[in-house]
Write a structure and sequence with these properties.
By secondary structure, this protein is mostly helical. The chain contains 7 helices and 2 strands; from the N terminus they run ααβαααβαα. It has a two-stranded antiparallel ribbon. α3 (67-78) packs parallel to α6. The longest helix is centred in the middle third of the chain and has 19 residues, at 39-57. The chain is elongated, with a radius of gyration of 18 Å.
Length: 128
């Protein structure tokens, strides 16, 4: 399937995000995916790209090791939560969490790591 032509970014022209859930202005998403040219999106995209350039120059990445996240997912499953429940509580996709559990991803994004680690672990009594 041929790619559609990219919408040009027009400086000063704000375009709202039609994603579900909607995302606020001021990040790379609005600038890159919705061609929003408002000042907050322009600044957010510039900041994102500068940080990426700095990380690449210093040999680092935005991604984290998946092993701690995998261990947390396994603990949550042991305590009685399903992958679907963990996905709903963390706001991550079921497929993404399933791939982490199957050890098919050596790294995860920082956003995924924070979301999974923020899910509260039920007590042992609740699991029984």
């Amino acid at each position: 399937m041929p790619r559609l032509p990219r919408t040009p970014i027009i400086r000063g022209l704000a375009r709202d995000c039609d994603c579900n859930p909607p995302r606020p202005h001021g990040g790379i998403h609005g600038y890159d995916y919705h061609a929003c040219g408002c000042e907050p999106c322009l600044k957010g995209a510039t900041r994102y790209k500068k940080i990426g350039t700095h990380l690449n120059a210093t040999g680092r990445t935005r991604r984290r090791a998946a092993e701690p996240v995998r261990r947390r997912l396994e603990l949550l499953k042991e305590r009685g939560l399903t992958v679907r429940q963990i996905a709903d509580e963390s706001g991550m996709s079921f497929t993404n969490l399933h791939l982490i559990l199957r050890a098919e991803q050596p790294t995860v994004t920082e956003r995924t790591a924070v979301a999974v680690m923020s899910v509260k672990v039920p007590s042992r009594r609740a699991a029984a």
